Amino acid sequence: MDEEQQVLGEARADVRPLHLDVVDTFGTQEAIERFNETLARPHVAFSGASPHNLSLKGVILVPDLIFPTGPVETVTPELWSDALNAKVLNTIAVTQALLPTVCESKARILMLTPSIVASLRPPFHSVETTIVKALEGFLASLRQELGTLGIDVLQFHLGTFDYSHVGPKHHLQTRAAGSPHAWPATTRTLYARNFETQTRAGLNADSSGSPLRELHNAVFDALVQRRPKSVWRVGRGSVAYDLVGKWVPDSLVGWMMGLRRVSLDTHTAPKLEDSVQSWEKVEASP
Question: Fewer beta carbons within 10 angstroms: which end of the chain, N or C?
Fold first, then answer.
């Protein structure tokens, strides 16, 4: 409901919220019916203008972009369940609810997902890698189904974007960084140093992003082009990291990210306090 209030806060006649509670089947059907009535009802753009009807050109799906990070053993089943339900099942359910309207209007479906982590498949990002690949698989199958009806299904692989002109500077590649302080002692000993190194590398790499205008223009083109391409790569790093993930060996990618092998011999393992202190430096960095 926070998102709905933000939309209402815009106070614009041409921007309206569409609340879909996919758990409530009856409520979802009612919401879709109201949406269809909006499309069928004549609208007046401004005082004195002739009434006209709206046409649905496309549905843009943007799943939640915040993902937990950390070693697999620290990601609880509850976190996995929440992430899969919120980002995969909810996205599929919303798509299913809108499909009849999409087919009737011959509209397009666009899905926007982060691509850098999914392309590189780095350690400590199992949740994001799994979810993005699941969404890509779903969309690929849906593309084949709707392609028989002449309906385009488009995938946007997103890099990083600079929001400095519209608010606080951050990026679409958003991750909920876990803290080694919450890990079991053995896990911290084994993973904290590499986790801290990778986190620092990610912060340095995300120092800048593409102008948000590039994404705006790409989405507009995808909606209006006569024969749009099926896959769009937009944002800093979306093309380069895709090539790296496809052609560069995983071991070399890990080395470039600063990952190093950790000995399982407790006598030669890195000191726990060293890794924790390094992580504290990362947390304190701007």
Answer: C
The correct answer on CATH 3.40.50.720 for the domain covering 59-284 is yes
Distances in Å between the alpha carbon of 256 and those of 74, 204, 244, 253, 279? Answer: 25, 13, 11, 5, 19
**Phi-psi region for residue 80, left (φ > 0), alpha (ψ -120 to 50) or beta?**
alpha
Q: Could you tell me the residue ranges of all domains in the chain?
A: 1-54, 59-284
Question: What is each CA distance from 173 to 71, 105, 125, 224, in whole angstroms?
Answer: 19, 32, 12, 26
pLDDT tens digits for range 56-101: 999 999 988 889 888 999 899 999 999 999 999 999 999 999 999 9
In 3D, which of 128, 126, 154, 150 has the Cα closest to residue 139?
Answer: 154
Strands 231-234 and 108-114, bridge-based pairing: unpaired
Contact between 134 and 90 (Cβ < 8 Å): no
pTM > 0.85: yes or no: no
